Amino acid sequence: MRTHLVVPTFLMVIVIGLVSGCGPGGSQRPPRPTRPESETNESNAAVNPPAAAVIPGDNPHSVTPDTSSDSPNAKVRDVALVDATWPELLALVEQHPGKIIVVDIWSTACEPCMKEFPSLIELQQRFPDDVVGISFDVDYAGMKNKPPAYYRERVLAFLGSQQENQVLHRMCTEPAEEFFNSIQLDSIPAVFVYGRDGKLLKRFEGSSGESAGVSYEKQVIPFVGDQVKTR
In this structure, is residue 35 part of a structural domain? Predict the structure, then answer.
């Protein structure tokens, strides 16, 4: 006489679930461990650094350059931005004897820097025969997967959005923290003024105690104006 094995319904559900890869409640079986997404992204970035000016989460003030003919940022292509170290920038200062040199140290990650930047242009335009303005961007943070070129497009986008000017533009190729330490600079914006003989006359910086920050209107322009008069 043949016997029949009766399997309770609840046991059948468990067996089917195990075979199909689902746990109680139909949840999927945990996948095998994979390389963390952050590591994958870092690796991809190191091989193919983003070319876009907007870097999500990196800087809310970055601007996407639009080089179409009808765009106000079309002139971004005309901005000459040269890589440089601080010693190379000082050599540039020495190339303009007889002029007052105003060096603006800034970054696109620094909102006060960008707010004051148009005043550098105004200062040079006010004293075109006496003043040479130099902007020194310090966006580069020193990360291996984000070389200076990584920041170039967004720096150019900002510079290209400014009024047409004769300011000389340089981009620091030293990591910002190392650069700050090398010249004992605590914060930016910062403005260094060099005399007609190439020697440093004044450092305007946020930690100088003169104000909560650097103001061209209240500090830099009056100081430079006095230097122009003493020629």
Answer: no
Q: Which of 132, 160, 138, 125 is nearest to 85 (CA)?
A: 138
Sign of the Cα torsion 158, 160, 164, 169 reads positive
Query: CATH no. for residue 207?
Result: 3.40.30.10
**Angle at CA of residue 156, ends 69 and 168, nearest 5°:** 110
Low-confidence ranges of the chain (pLDDT < 70): 1-77, 207-212, 231
Q: Pick from 82, 126, 122, 89: which is nearest to 200 by CA?
A: 89
As given in the structure block, the two tokens for residue 90 are 């000082």
Number of compact structural domains in the chain? 1
- Give residue-wise pLDDT tens across range 187-221: 999 999 999 999 999 999 975 444 457 999 999 99
Structural domain includes residue 66: no
User: Residue 49 falls within a domain, yes or no?
Assistant: no
Residue 199, amino acid: K
Flag whether 56 is in a domain. Answer: no
pTM: 0.67
Q: What is the pLDDT of residues 131-154, one digit of tens each?
A: 999 999 999 999 999 999 999 999
